[in-house]
Amino acid sequence: MDEAAGHGIARWKRRHRLACGIRTALGSARLAGTALMGTVLPGTMLLVFAPSAFAIGPGPVAGPVNVTSGTVQVVADTVVTSTASNPGADVTGGTLDIDSNAGASPALIRFITASGNALQASGTGVINARSNFAVTTTSGHAVLANAGGTIFLNGGNLVGSGGGGGLIALGGRIDATSVAYSNNTTSASNGQGAIADSGGTINLLGNVALDTAGNQAVDLGAGTNSTINVTGPAIVTLRGTNAMGTYLHDGGQVNLPTGMAINHYGTGNVGVTVDNTTA
Asked: Is the pLDDT of residue 125 over 90?
């Protein structure tokens, strides 16, 4: 082992609590926006959700979209925009159905946030995001499943430009198919790809792409009692320096298919790091 590699391993061990640090940083923001009514822009509908089904859109809607029970559907050609630390959607109970084929005609559905998470679920909440949806966040997480929350993604484009991550499961579950996440930030230790911790599970079921440019970023990371399963085609790309393709700590597991490649384009990158875990 050369000297650079030795320094690299020491650096990874200092950062072996990375996923836990993400969880702590989320403490104040992960359940932001708990009111049962969203702000209403001129010409948009009131976001009051009864236990029965309720439709949102089309057109501009001021977030957050908060769901506590029942079924709420976001229809085609809807743009949900949240400011400050407000999430785009916060589902603590019931189901949020994001369906670009619902409505007058199929069209893109967008969620845009500043420092809030774009899509987040917890408790008994479920988010079902179907084809042709897009998420853009400046510094929040694109998708966050807290304890008990379940998020199904099929056919979406996720874009981050700051310190948030792409698919983050902290005790919850995320299933992703035909989803692309990219984050071009070059800040240190930011812009993670997929992180599971605190009993979280992430299933990458096929045609998933994770592309990060952050220095010291992690594309596939699993911590305490958590698992990432890659069962279909996936493209994992790291463009920053000193980044890690796969990182396991404190019992976390990342299960990859035979022959899967992780693309490294930065200097000092490490393919696999294992800390306090049996791989």
From this structure: yes
Helical H segments across the chain, by residue range: 3-14, 18-25
Residue 48 burial by CB count (10 A; 0-12/13-18/19+): exposed, middle or buried?
exposed
Q: Which phi and psi angles does 10 have, rounded to 5°?
A: -60, -40
Q: What are phi and psi of 253, to 5 degrees?
A: -130, 140
CA pair distance 111, 159, nearest whole angstrom: 11
The residues, any chain, with a CB within 8 Å of residue 31's CB and separated by 6 or more, are 90, 92, 120, 122, 146
pLDDT (tens digit, 9 = 90+) per residue, 201-241?
999 999 999 999 998 899 999 999 999 999 999 999 999 99
According to DSSP, the residues that pair with 247 across neighbouring strands are: 221, 273
3-state SS class at 112: strand
The DSSP letter of residue 75 is P
- The whole-number average pLDDT for the span 92-104 is 97
